[in-house]
Amino acid sequence: MAGKKLRARLTGAASAGMALALVGSFSLVGCSGESAGPPTLTWYTNPDNGGQKTLAEKCAAESGGAFRISTQVLPNDATAQREQLVRRLAAGDSSVDLMSLDPPFVAEFANAGYLLPVTDPADVAGLTAGVLAGPLKTAFWNDQLVATPFWANTQLLWFRRSIAQAAGVDPSATTFTWNQMIDVAEAQKKKIAVQGNRYEGLMVWINALVASGGGQIVENASAGAKATPSVASPAGDAAAGVVGRLARSPAAPSDMSTATEEEARSLFQSSDGAFMVNWPYVYQAAKSSVAKGALDQAMVDDIGWARYPRVDEGQASAPPLGGINLAIGAFSKQPEAALAAVKCITSVPSNAEYMVEAGNPAARAAAYDDPAVREAFPMADLIRQSINDAGPRPVTPYYGDVSSSVQRTWHPAQNVTAPQTPERTDTYMAEVLSGERLL
After folding, report:
1. Which tens digit of pLDDT belongs to each residue from 224-277?
2. Distances (CA, A) of 173 to 208, 277, 318, 389
3. Domain with 93 in it
Protein backbone atom coordinates (compact mmCIF):
# COMPACT_ATOMS: atom_id res chain seq x y z
CA MET A 1 0.00 0.00 0.00
CA ALA A 2 2.69 2.48 0.98
CA GLY A 3 4.77 1.62 -2.08
CA LYS A 4 1.93 2.57 -4.45
CA LYS A 5 1.44 5.94 -2.76
CA LEU A 6 5.16 6.69 -2.90
CA ARG A 7 5.39 5.71 -6.58
CA ALA A 8 2.64 8.16 -7.45
CA ARG A 9 4.47 10.95 -5.67
CA LEU A 10 7.78 10.14 -7.40
CA THR A 11 6.23 10.82 -10.79
CA GLY A 12 4.37 13.85 -9.47
CA ALA A 13 5.63 17.13 -8.06
CA ALA A 14 6.61 16.45 -4.45
CA SER A 15 9.54 18.47 -3.13
CA ALA A 16 12.76 16.87 -1.88
CA GLY A 17 11.94 17.88 1.68
CA MET A 18 8.48 16.34 1.49
CA ALA A 19 10.03 13.20 0.00
CA LEU A 20 12.23 12.65 3.05
CA ALA A 21 9.32 13.32 5.37
CA LEU A 22 7.22 10.76 3.51
CA VAL A 23 10.04 8.24 3.65
CA GLY A 24 10.10 8.55 7.41
CA SER A 25 6.33 8.28 7.90
CA PHE A 26 5.79 5.37 5.51
CA SER A 27 8.86 3.42 6.58
CA LEU A 28 8.10 3.45 10.28
CA VAL A 29 4.51 2.32 9.99
CA GLY A 30 3.53 -0.22 7.33
CA CYS A 31 0.04 -1.16 6.15
CA SER A 32 -0.41 -3.42 9.16
CA GLY A 33 0.46 -0.60 11.55
CA GLU A 34 3.52 -2.44 12.88
CA SER A 35 6.83 -0.63 13.39
CA ALA A 36 9.26 -1.69 10.67
CA GLY A 37 12.17 0.73 11.09
CA PRO A 38 13.82 2.62 8.25
CA PRO A 39 13.70 0.88 4.85
CA THR A 40 16.77 -0.87 3.50
CA LEU A 41 17.39 -0.13 -0.16
CA THR A 42 19.21 -2.73 -2.24
CA TRP A 43 21.70 -1.28 -4.70
CA TYR A 44 23.03 -3.61 -7.40
CA THR A 45 26.50 -2.32 -8.27
CA ASN A 46 29.09 -3.08 -10.89
CA PRO A 47 32.36 -4.37 -9.39
CA ASP A 48 34.78 -1.72 -8.14
CA ASN A 49 37.26 -1.35 -5.30
CA GLY A 50 34.52 -0.76 -2.73
CA GLY A 51 33.85 2.87 -3.58
CA GLN A 52 30.13 2.35 -4.19
CA LYS A 53 29.76 0.58 -0.85
CA THR A 54 31.49 3.55 0.81
CA LEU A 55 29.04 5.96 -0.83
CA ALA A 56 26.13 3.76 0.25
CA GLU A 57 27.25 3.99 3.86
CA LYS A 58 27.87 7.72 3.60
CA CYS A 59 24.49 8.53 2.06
CA ALA A 60 22.62 6.29 4.51
CA ALA A 61 24.30 8.13 7.38
CA GLU A 62 23.52 11.52 5.86
CA SER A 63 19.84 10.56 5.49
CA GLY A 64 19.43 10.90 9.24
CA GLY A 65 18.00 7.41 9.57
CA ALA A 66 15.52 7.76 6.70
CA PHE A 67 16.97 4.72 4.93
CA ARG A 68 19.77 2.19 4.84
CA ILE A 69 21.52 0.88 1.70
CA SER A 70 22.69 -2.68 1.13
CA THR A 71 24.97 -3.24 -1.88
CA GLN A 72 24.94 -6.37 -4.03
CA VAL A 73 27.81 -6.74 -6.51
CA LEU A 74 27.00 -7.79 -10.07
CA PRO A 75 29.31 -9.95 -12.26
CA ASN A 76 32.47 -8.47 -13.81
CA ASP A 77 31.29 -8.66 -17.42
CA ALA A 78 28.84 -5.96 -18.57
CA THR A 79 26.78 -8.50 -20.54
CA ALA A 80 26.47 -10.74 -17.49
CA GLN A 81 25.45 -7.71 -15.41
CA ARG A 82 22.69 -6.98 -17.88
CA GLU A 83 21.48 -10.58 -17.90
CA GLN A 84 21.22 -10.78 -14.12
CA LEU A 85 19.30 -7.52 -13.87
CA VAL A 86 17.00 -8.42 -16.77
CA ARG A 87 16.10 -11.75 -15.16
CA ARG A 88 15.18 -10.03 -11.90
CA LEU A 89 13.29 -7.13 -13.42
CA ALA A 90 11.42 -9.29 -15.91
CA ALA A 91 10.08 -11.15 -12.89
CA GLY A 92 9.00 -7.89 -11.23
CA ASP A 93 11.63 -8.20 -8.49
CA SER A 94 10.96 -5.42 -5.97
CA SER A 95 14.39 -5.89 -4.35
CA VAL A 96 16.04 -3.96 -7.20
CA ASP A 97 15.73 -0.51 -5.67
CA LEU A 98 18.84 0.96 -7.29
CA MET A 99 21.08 -0.31 -10.06
CA SER A 100 24.38 0.76 -11.54
CA LEU A 101 23.58 0.50 -15.23
CA ASP A 102 25.92 0.59 -18.21
CA PRO A 103 24.66 3.51 -20.39
CA PRO A 104 24.12 1.40 -23.56
CA PHE A 105 21.52 -0.66 -21.66
CA VAL A 106 19.45 2.29 -20.41
CA ALA A 107 17.23 2.53 -23.50
CA GLU A 108 16.54 -1.22 -23.50
CA PHE A 109 15.60 -1.28 -19.82
CA ALA A 110 13.49 1.87 -20.06
CA ASN A 111 11.67 0.66 -23.16
CA ALA A 112 10.80 -2.58 -21.34
CA GLY A 113 9.34 -0.65 -18.38
CA TYR A 114 12.09 -1.71 -15.95
CA LEU A 115 13.15 1.80 -14.89
CA LEU A 116 11.13 4.28 -12.86
CA PRO A 117 11.22 7.72 -14.51
CA VAL A 118 11.78 10.88 -12.50
CA THR A 119 9.25 13.40 -13.75
CA ASP A 120 9.11 16.13 -11.11
CA PRO A 121 10.70 19.12 -12.92
CA ALA A 122 12.58 20.23 -9.80
CA ASP A 123 14.07 16.77 -9.30
CA VAL A 124 14.99 16.45 -12.97
CA ALA A 125 16.70 19.84 -12.86
CA GLY A 126 18.65 18.95 -9.73
CA LEU A 127 19.77 15.55 -11.01
CA THR A 128 20.99 16.90 -14.34
CA ALA A 129 22.48 20.25 -13.28
CA GLY A 130 26.15 20.45 -14.19
CA VAL A 131 26.24 16.99 -15.78
CA LEU A 132 28.61 16.81 -18.75
CA ALA A 133 26.97 16.70 -22.18
CA GLY A 134 28.21 13.23 -23.15
CA PRO A 135 26.68 11.22 -20.29
CA LEU A 136 23.56 13.39 -20.24
CA LYS A 137 22.67 12.06 -23.71
CA THR A 138 22.37 8.55 -22.25
CA ALA A 139 20.06 9.42 -19.35
CA PHE A 140 16.75 10.04 -21.16
CA TRP A 141 14.24 7.85 -22.94
CA ASN A 142 11.05 9.20 -24.53
CA ASP A 143 11.97 12.60 -23.12
CA GLN A 144 11.93 11.31 -19.53
CA LEU A 145 14.86 11.09 -17.13
CA VAL A 146 15.16 7.36 -16.52
CA ALA A 147 18.75 7.12 -15.20
CA THR A 148 20.99 9.68 -13.53
CA PRO A 149 24.64 9.86 -14.67
CA PHE A 150 26.73 8.68 -11.71
CA TRP A 151 30.24 8.43 -13.09
CA ALA A 152 31.36 8.84 -16.66
CA ASN A 153 34.34 7.63 -18.60
CA THR A 154 36.28 8.27 -21.76
CA GLN A 155 39.40 7.05 -23.46
CA LEU A 156 42.49 9.16 -23.89
CA LEU A 157 45.52 8.72 -26.09
CA TRP A 158 48.40 7.63 -23.87
CA PHE A 159 51.91 7.89 -25.30
CA ARG A 160 55.52 7.44 -24.30
CA ARG A 161 57.05 10.91 -24.21
CA SER A 162 60.52 9.61 -25.09
CA ILE A 163 59.28 7.92 -28.26
CA ALA A 164 57.25 10.91 -29.39
CA GLN A 165 60.28 13.12 -28.82
CA ALA A 166 62.53 10.76 -30.76
CA ALA A 167 60.07 10.85 -33.65
CA GLY A 168 59.72 14.62 -33.50
CA VAL A 169 55.94 14.59 -33.10
CA ASP A 170 53.51 16.09 -30.61
CA PRO A 171 50.58 13.70 -29.99
CA SER A 172 48.77 16.45 -28.08
CA ALA A 173 48.56 18.56 -31.23
CA THR A 174 44.92 19.10 -32.18
CA THR A 175 45.47 17.64 -35.65
CA PHE A 176 47.15 14.37 -34.58
CA THR A 177 45.54 11.46 -36.44
CA TRP A 178 45.46 7.68 -36.30
CA ASN A 179 47.43 7.45 -39.53
CA GLN A 180 50.14 9.75 -38.16
CA MET A 181 50.31 7.59 -35.06
CA ILE A 182 50.73 4.43 -37.13
CA ASP A 183 53.46 6.14 -39.17
CA VAL A 184 55.38 7.02 -36.00
CA ALA A 185 55.02 3.55 -34.46
CA GLU A 186 56.22 1.89 -37.65
CA ALA A 187 59.20 4.21 -37.96
CA GLN A 188 60.18 3.67 -34.32
CA LYS A 189 59.50 -0.08 -34.50
CA LYS A 190 57.01 0.14 -31.65
CA LYS A 191 53.43 -0.98 -31.01
CA ILE A 192 50.02 0.66 -30.65
CA ALA A 193 47.84 -0.90 -27.94
CA VAL A 194 44.10 -1.14 -28.68
CA GLN A 195 41.14 -3.32 -27.66
CA GLY A 196 40.67 -5.72 -30.60
CA ASN A 197 39.01 -8.72 -28.98
CA ARG A 198 35.45 -9.58 -30.04
CA TYR A 199 33.71 -7.97 -27.07
CA GLU A 200 32.20 -4.62 -26.14
CA GLY A 201 35.61 -2.94 -26.21
CA LEU A 202 35.76 -3.52 -29.97
CA MET A 203 32.37 -1.83 -30.38
CA VAL A 204 33.68 1.11 -28.32
CA TRP A 205 36.61 1.48 -30.70
CA ILE A 206 34.57 1.19 -33.92
CA ASN A 207 31.87 3.56 -32.68
CA ALA A 208 34.48 6.17 -31.72
CA LEU A 209 36.16 5.96 -35.12
CA VAL A 210 32.87 6.25 -37.01
CA ALA A 211 31.68 9.12 -34.79
CA SER A 212 35.03 10.88 -35.15
CA GLY A 213 34.51 10.81 -38.91
CA GLY A 214 31.11 12.45 -38.53
CA GLY A 215 29.06 9.27 -38.97
CA GLN A 216 26.94 6.99 -36.83
CA ILE A 217 26.40 3.26 -36.50
CA VAL A 218 22.63 3.52 -36.99
CA GLU A 219 20.28 6.30 -37.98
CA ASN A 220 17.04 6.84 -36.09
CA ALA A 221 18.33 4.58 -33.31
CA SER A 222 15.30 5.15 -31.07
CA ALA A 223 13.14 3.37 -33.67
CA GLY A 224 14.52 0.08 -32.38
CA ALA A 225 14.08 -2.73 -34.88
CA LYS A 226 13.19 -0.18 -37.57
CA ALA A 227 16.43 1.78 -37.15
CA THR A 228 18.57 2.14 -40.27
CA PRO A 229 22.13 0.71 -40.20
CA SER A 230 24.47 3.42 -41.51
CA VAL A 231 28.03 2.14 -41.12
CA ALA A 232 28.41 2.03 -44.91
CA SER A 233 29.33 5.68 -45.31
CA PRO A 234 32.43 7.84 -45.81
CA ALA A 235 32.89 7.81 -42.01
CA GLY A 236 32.54 4.03 -41.88
CA ASP A 237 35.01 3.58 -44.73
CA ALA A 238 37.51 5.85 -42.97
CA ALA A 239 37.11 3.85 -39.77
CA ALA A 240 37.67 0.60 -41.65
CA GLY A 241 40.76 2.13 -43.23
CA VAL A 242 42.24 2.86 -39.80
CA VAL A 243 41.39 -0.54 -38.29
CA GLY A 244 42.57 -2.53 -41.31
CA ARG A 245 45.78 -0.57 -41.72
CA LEU A 246 46.76 -0.94 -38.07
CA ALA A 247 45.87 -4.63 -37.96
CA ARG A 248 48.07 -5.38 -40.97
CA SER A 249 50.87 -3.09 -39.81
CA PRO A 250 54.03 -4.07 -37.91
CA ALA A 251 52.76 -1.59 -35.30
CA ALA A 252 49.91 -4.00 -34.45
CA PRO A 253 50.19 -6.06 -31.24
CA SER A 254 50.65 -9.78 -31.81
CA ASP A 255 47.59 -10.42 -29.62
CA MET A 256 45.42 -7.72 -31.19
CA SER A 257 42.52 -10.08 -31.94
CA THR A 258 42.24 -11.08 -28.28
CA ALA A 259 43.37 -7.89 -26.55
CA THR A 260 41.20 -6.18 -23.93
CA GLU A 261 41.99 -3.17 -21.73
CA GLU A 262 44.44 -5.03 -19.53
CA GLU A 263 46.38 -6.62 -22.39
CA ALA A 264 46.64 -3.16 -23.94
CA ARG A 265 47.94 -1.71 -20.66
CA SER A 266 50.52 -4.47 -20.31
CA LEU A 267 51.83 -3.92 -23.84
CA PHE A 268 52.01 -0.16 -23.42
CA GLN A 269 54.06 -0.53 -20.24
CA SER A 270 56.50 -2.89 -21.95
CA SER A 271 59.58 -1.95 -23.97
CA ASP A 272 57.52 -2.35 -27.17
CA GLY A 273 54.84 0.14 -26.19
CA ALA A 274 54.52 3.55 -27.84
CA PHE A 275 50.83 4.51 -27.92
CA MET A 276 47.61 3.27 -26.33
CA VAL A 277 43.94 4.21 -26.34
CA ASN A 278 42.43 3.32 -22.97
CA TRP A 279 40.42 4.56 -20.01
CA PRO A 280 41.95 6.86 -17.33
CA TYR A 281 42.18 4.05 -14.78
CA VAL A 282 45.44 3.01 -16.45
CA TYR A 283 47.28 5.97 -14.94
CA GLN A 284 46.32 5.09 -11.38
CA ALA A 285 47.05 1.42 -12.14
CA ALA A 286 50.55 2.31 -13.31
CA LYS A 287 51.22 4.30 -10.13
CA SER A 288 49.94 1.39 -8.04
CA SER A 289 52.33 -0.94 -9.86
CA VAL A 290 55.21 1.35 -8.92
CA ALA A 291 54.13 1.27 -5.28
CA LYS A 292 54.12 -2.54 -5.42
CA GLY A 293 57.56 -2.64 -7.01
CA ALA A 294 56.24 -4.13 -10.26
CA LEU A 295 57.01 -1.09 -12.42
CA ASP A 296 59.74 1.50 -12.54
CA GLN A 297 58.87 5.09 -11.70
CA ALA A 298 60.75 6.14 -14.84
CA MET A 299 58.09 4.45 -16.93
CA VAL A 300 55.28 6.39 -15.23
CA ASP A 301 57.24 9.62 -15.66
CA ASP A 302 57.45 8.84 -19.38
CA ILE A 303 53.64 8.62 -19.80
CA GLY A 304 52.01 11.45 -21.70
CA TRP A 305 48.34 11.95 -22.47
CA ALA A 306 46.30 13.66 -25.14
CA ARG A 307 42.81 13.75 -26.58
CA TYR A 308 41.63 10.72 -28.55
CA PRO A 309 43.27 10.76 -32.02
CA ARG A 310 41.44 12.19 -35.02
CA VAL A 311 40.39 10.12 -37.99
CA ASP A 312 40.50 13.18 -40.24
CA GLU A 313 42.95 15.98 -39.59
CA GLY A 314 40.28 18.61 -40.18
CA GLN A 315 37.64 17.20 -37.83
CA ALA A 316 37.73 16.96 -34.04
CA SER A 317 37.56 13.45 -32.63
CA ALA A 318 34.55 12.10 -30.77
CA PRO A 319 36.15 10.23 -27.84
CA PRO A 320 34.52 7.05 -26.53
CA LEU A 321 31.95 7.37 -23.75
CA GLY A 322 31.61 4.93 -20.88
CA GLY A 323 30.63 5.06 -17.25
CA ILE A 324 27.66 4.11 -15.11
CA ASN A 325 24.18 5.59 -14.71
CA LEU A 326 22.17 5.14 -11.53
CA ALA A 327 18.59 4.01 -12.06
CA ILE A 328 15.61 3.23 -9.82
CA GLY A 329 13.92 -0.13 -10.34
CA ALA A 330 10.33 0.15 -11.58
CA PHE A 331 9.12 -2.32 -8.95
CA SER A 332 10.85 -0.79 -5.93
CA LYS A 333 8.61 -0.50 -2.87
CA GLN A 334 10.61 2.48 -1.64
CA PRO A 335 10.85 4.87 -4.62
CA GLU A 336 10.97 8.05 -2.53
CA ALA A 337 13.85 6.74 -0.44
CA ALA A 338 15.55 5.52 -3.62
CA LEU A 339 15.23 8.99 -5.16
CA ALA A 340 16.77 10.59 -2.08
CA ALA A 341 19.64 8.09 -2.28
CA VAL A 342 20.22 8.87 -5.97
CA LYS A 343 20.46 12.57 -5.17
CA CYS A 344 23.15 11.91 -2.58
CA ILE A 345 25.13 9.30 -4.53
CA THR A 346 25.30 11.44 -7.71
CA SER A 347 26.04 14.77 -6.00
CA VAL A 348 29.18 16.75 -6.80
CA PRO A 349 30.88 15.86 -3.46
CA SER A 350 30.09 12.18 -3.98
CA ASN A 351 31.35 12.37 -7.59
CA ALA A 352 34.67 13.82 -6.42
CA GLU A 353 35.03 11.35 -3.56
CA TYR A 354 34.33 8.38 -5.82
CA MET A 355 36.72 9.61 -8.53
CA VAL A 356 39.58 9.78 -6.04
CA GLU A 357 38.77 6.51 -4.26
CA ALA A 358 37.75 4.34 -7.21
CA GLY A 359 39.63 6.09 -10.03
CA ASN A 360 36.47 6.46 -12.13
CA PRO A 361 35.85 9.92 -13.65
CA ALA A 362 32.96 12.08 -12.50
CA ALA A 363 29.82 12.82 -14.50
CA ARG A 364 29.44 16.34 -13.07
CA ALA A 365 31.77 19.04 -14.31
CA ALA A 366 32.32 20.73 -10.94
CA ALA A 367 33.85 17.61 -9.41
CA TYR A 368 36.98 18.10 -11.54
CA ASP A 369 37.74 21.31 -9.67
CA ASP A 370 38.07 19.47 -6.36
CA PRO A 371 41.71 19.75 -5.16
CA ALA A 372 41.92 16.04 -4.36
CA VAL A 373 40.73 15.14 -7.87
CA ARG A 374 43.26 17.45 -9.49
CA GLU A 375 46.06 15.99 -7.41
CA ALA A 376 45.13 12.42 -8.30
CA PHE A 377 44.49 13.19 -11.97
CA PRO A 378 46.86 15.78 -13.47
CA MET A 379 44.94 15.32 -16.74
CA ALA A 380 41.58 16.17 -15.07
CA ASP A 381 40.74 19.01 -17.48
CA LEU A 382 41.39 16.77 -20.50
CA ILE A 383 39.18 14.01 -19.08
CA ARG A 384 36.38 16.49 -18.39
CA GLN A 385 36.51 17.96 -21.90
CA SER A 386 36.75 14.55 -23.53
CA ILE A 387 33.70 13.27 -21.65
CA ASN A 388 31.77 16.39 -22.55
CA ASP A 389 32.62 15.96 -26.26
CA ALA A 390 32.31 12.18 -26.30
CA GLY A 391 30.20 10.27 -28.81
CA PRO A 392 27.79 7.86 -27.08
CA ARG A 393 27.15 4.45 -28.50
CA PRO A 394 23.72 4.12 -30.18
CA VAL A 395 20.85 4.85 -27.78
CA THR A 396 18.50 2.05 -28.80
CA PRO A 397 16.49 -0.69 -27.05
CA TYR A 398 18.15 -3.09 -29.50
CA TYR A 399 21.66 -2.14 -28.50
CA GLY A 400 22.75 -5.74 -27.91
CA ASP A 401 21.85 -6.65 -31.50
CA VAL A 402 23.57 -3.57 -32.88
CA SER A 403 26.77 -4.12 -30.92
CA SER A 404 26.95 -7.84 -31.70
CA SER A 405 26.49 -7.12 -35.41
CA VAL A 406 29.47 -4.76 -35.39
CA GLN A 407 31.65 -7.08 -33.34
CA ARG A 408 31.01 -10.05 -35.63
CA THR A 409 31.69 -8.21 -38.87
CA TRP A 410 34.77 -6.26 -37.72
CA HIS A 411 36.60 -9.19 -36.12
CA PRO A 412 39.31 -10.15 -36.66
CA ALA A 413 40.63 -6.73 -37.56
CA GLN A 414 43.10 -8.17 -40.08
CA ASN A 415 40.14 -8.89 -42.37
CA VAL A 416 38.65 -5.38 -42.20
CA THR A 417 38.60 -3.52 -45.51
CA ALA A 418 36.72 -0.55 -46.97
CA PRO A 419 34.08 -0.44 -48.29
CA GLN A 420 33.46 -4.18 -47.88
CA THR A 421 33.35 -4.35 -44.07
CA PRO A 422 30.96 -1.40 -43.51
CA GLU A 423 28.67 -2.74 -46.23
CA ARG A 424 28.71 -6.20 -44.70
CA THR A 425 27.91 -4.71 -41.27
CA ASP A 426 24.83 -2.89 -42.55
CA THR A 427 23.51 -6.00 -44.27
CA TYR A 428 24.19 -8.20 -41.24
CA MET A 429 22.64 -5.71 -38.81
CA ALA A 430 19.55 -5.17 -40.95
CA GLU A 431 18.95 -8.92 -41.06
CA VAL A 432 19.38 -9.21 -37.28
CA LEU A 433 17.05 -6.30 -36.52
CA SER A 434 14.38 -7.62 -38.89
CA GLY A 435 14.57 -11.12 -37.42
CA GLU A 436 15.94 -12.69 -40.60
CA ARG A 437 19.22 -13.66 -38.91
CA LEU A 438 19.92 -15.04 -35.45
CA LEU A 439 22.98 -13.97 -33.51
Report:
1. 899 999 999 999 999 999 999 999 999 999 999 999 999 999 999 999 999 999
2. 19, 16, 15, 17
3. 2-146+323-379
